[in-house]
Amino acid sequence: MPMSTNPRLIATLTLAAFLGAGASGCDRIWPHGSNPPKETANETIKSTSPAASPAPAAPPDTAAAEPPARMTLAQQADFDAWLIKTYLGCWRPAPQPADADPYVAQVRLAYKPDGSLSKPARLVNPPSNPALKPQAKSVMLAVQNCNPLPVPAQYRPFYDQWKTKTIHFDPQVAAR
User: Looking at the 3D structure of the chain, how many domains does it have?
Assistant: First the structure.
């Protein structure tokens, strides 16, 4: 009987290929609801033959390695936390009127690679209540006082990800 049609041999070779490739189960987990790509019996057998195994890759040259194209989620969170902390340090919120709902100003900012503003800041949600206008003015003054931002070196390579941002100035956060 030809080797590729024996189901028991295929199962054994598939398991051997799975375990031999260092897949202890963790690196072959597929997202919930999806199925792994289907392999034919011939592909499974080919992948286990010693002649078909690729040569080990040379270790990467770390000196010539380029930085990742995008920030990781953790880096993004750290950058956003740094940005908020920096602006809160420049902001002196105007007193909130007791009878008004808290106003959280949203400011759209565009930066140059050096951290300075490339165009004037834009208040996305100007207050409709005249009593909150001093709050909006204090936010715009904070943006001016922080210009240019001293962007830490580890974030500079990711300029495309932070060149435009919308910052929320929440007086309750500033009060902490």
Answer: 2
